[in-house]
Structure formats: structure tokens, C-alpha cells
Amino acid sequence: MDLKRQADQWAEVGGHRIRYWKKGNSSSTILLIHGMGCSCLEWSENIDALANSCTVVAVDMVGFGKSDKPAEYDYSPVNQAVTLIKLLEHLQVEEVHLVGNSLGGRVAIEMASILGDKAKSLTLAASAGGATDAPHAMRLQTLPLVGKWLTKPDRIKHQVGWCSVFVNKSRLSQERIDEKFQDSLLPGAQASALATVRSMIDLRGFKRQDIQQLHEKIKALNTRVMIIWGDSDPLLPVHHAAKFQSLLKNAVVHIFKQCGHAPQIEQAEKFNQLLAQFIR
Prior knowledge:
globular; alpha/beta
């Protein structure tokens, strides 16, 4: 399947050059936030459909995709959230519907907590932050020397890794895998990815104190929340969705059958329909 791309656009935020894709002319704006090792490309199957009713912005967070990868940047989810809020200000967006996958969901939660009523809705697609268990490979990346070795770009490991998080492999094109790998070779990409992991995770999993603080922020949210998860997610298993649901009593929850860690790609049509209905 050919990937549906948008024109690259650029903004300078806090001295860092950030790539984003934008489509639509509505006064209602959706911000799409990717996960680890990803970029705007993670939303290639969603932007056109969502732009029928909203202005859609997809962004490469600092350290990812084609955006700058500074060595001295704070790659924590909180700081990524602050940077994306500044991007919204640059784009003159006052109110926003937040959508995040994996790491992007964790960043979206932090944004919603900061923005308050300006966050019109929050959609968590296989989001980090629900529970403390984390993939073993990411835990090992927190070790000195070992982490650098584990995150060294390797084409075969990259191919196998991304295939493992999809149930329907036909939805994961070789073009997508290849572009992810090329992005991982860019100067600073390995260091920024490692810094991101270490900002959130230790040998036990997601840092306990951070998750506790995040859960307090989640319980204080007033915005509408939708949770979308694949029942076969190998990275953040579906019990993470149940934890989010326990914190957000009024959240709308959709569990996609036979779906992995990227429901916005693997079951894009269903995802787009649910999101368009939710943000109306």
C-alpha cells in the first residue's frame, strides 16, 4: 500500500526546527502525536479522512523524524508537551483535540493537563502511562553501554521489530519500514531515542514515581477522553487500557480485535470513523 503523504512544513520553536504536516481549513484543530521511533508518517492513513471536518496537524517531535535532534534537549514527555504547546502557539491554535499513539499518548496527557479547557478532547491510542510494566528491551536500554549497543541501527532487527507489533502485516508497508530505518540513521537519532527511553524507564519498567504523578494528573482532567487499543498489542498490552479506564470513569473505550500497537494504521478506517465521531 502506498503511503499518503503531505507536504513538509517547518516551524522554529525554542530554537529547534520542527517538521509538521498540515491539512484542512477548519477552525477545529486536531494534533496528532507519534510514538517512539516514529514521525508524521504514523498518521499517513488518517490525515486525509480527518481533514474533511477539521484542520489536522501531525508533528515530528524534537528528536524524531526530520525534526532537530539536539544533544542538550530535555527529552522527557513533560518537556515534549511544553514544546508542542509552543508549536500550537506558533500556529495560532488556541483550542485543540489531542491524539497520541504510544509515547505520543503520554505527551498528549501532559499537554491536556497543562492546557486545561483549551484541550477539547484527548484520544489515547495504545498510550504509554497506564501501567508500569515496560518492554524488556527498553528496560535494558537504561544500562550504560548496553543501551547504546541495543539502540545501534540494524536493518534486520528494525524489520523484525516493526513487523512484530502488527497483527495484519499487510498494513505495514516496506516503504514505511524503510523510511523509519533511514530516520534512525540521521545524526543524533540514536542519542535522542536513548535519552527519551531513559527519561521514562528504568530497569523495573516505567518509573514508578512518574507514573503515580501522571495518574494524579489524569484523574484531574476535565476533558473528554477516548481510549483505543489493540487486543494483541505486544508492547503495551491491553491491561494498560484497563488501567486508564479505571482512572477515567467516563472515558469511551474501544478495543480493536486482531490489532497490534498501531491501531491508527492497522485498522485505519475504523479508527478514523471513531475519532471523527468523537470530536464532533
